[in-house]
Amino acid sequence: MRLALAIAFLSLVAPLGNRLHAVEGSQVVRVEEFWELVVGLPDSTTSGPQITCTISPRANLDGRYSIFTLNHRSHPSFAPGGTQLQVWNGESTVEARNHPNTALLNTTGETIKWTMKMSLISGLLVFDVDDGDSTTWSNFGANGHLWASVSTNVSNLNGYNPAVSVANSGVNFASNRVQSLVLKKVRLVLASGEVLEDTTARVVHQLTP
Q1: Which of 12, 40, 127, 178 is found 20 to 30 A from 135 (Cα to Cα)?
Q2: What are the Cα distances from residue 38, in Å, to 69, 107, 143?
Q3: pLDDT along the chain (209 residues), means of 10
């Protein structure tokens, strides 16, 4: 059963698309996105670069979804440095959570890794940034600093599509100061406990020489 599901998943998710119903009877209850950012030459005087990553339970940004910002915090007003997890409902911000380390990117060639998680737990839609590792912010995402939950009428996460994450993520300021931003891997957890992975690397930004 496990092997059959994994093969079915991998055959569907390159790219994943909105076709999880083809894995018969599956109910996705958690999505984990593994991200990697390689900084080029940051500029602390302008808070450059500034990066935003997005994850949604649907194949669009209708309803509730989450944004993770790096090297800037944009809610309730702009502040340079640090990281921030935001929850949105359509065009409106519902909640914003800041990590206490508000340092500016200032290390040439730094590689930053983190996992964006989205889960359904007891009728709540939970967003979480975890397993962060960087030179600037050290290990970030622990202690619930980048965690938020909201009510939802979504019964599963089968509508998730990594193409939506890729299309709505990027370097929104000083893109010339980022070597690459890549969604390295996607992991789905089913209600049955099965874990499915798609190791397709999806490049959001790549600096052209």
Answers
A1: 127
A2: 15, 11, 25
A3: 37 41 73 98 97 97 97 96 97 96 97 98 96 96 93 94 98 98 97 95 94
| Residues in Cβ contact with 20 at an 8 Å cutoff, skipping those fewer than 6 apart | 12, 26, 28, 158, 160, 188
Smallest Cα–Cα separation from 158: which of 22, 5, 14, 11?
Answer: 22
* pLDDT tens by residue, 22-65: 455 789 999 999 999 999 999 999 999 999 999 999 999 999 99
Domain ranges of the chain: 2-206
Q: How far apart are CA 127 and CA 161, in angstroms?
A: 16
Closest CA to 84 of 95, 181, 92: 95
DSSP string, 1-57: -HHHHHHHHHHH-TT--S-GGGSTT--EEEEEEEEEEEE-S-BTTTTB-EEEEEE-S
CA distances from 153 to 112, 116, 150, 168, 190 (A): 34, 21, 10, 23, 18
Give the whole-angstrom CA distance, residue 141 versus residue 3. 32
Check if the beta carbon of residue 124 is closer than 8 Å to that of residue 149: yes
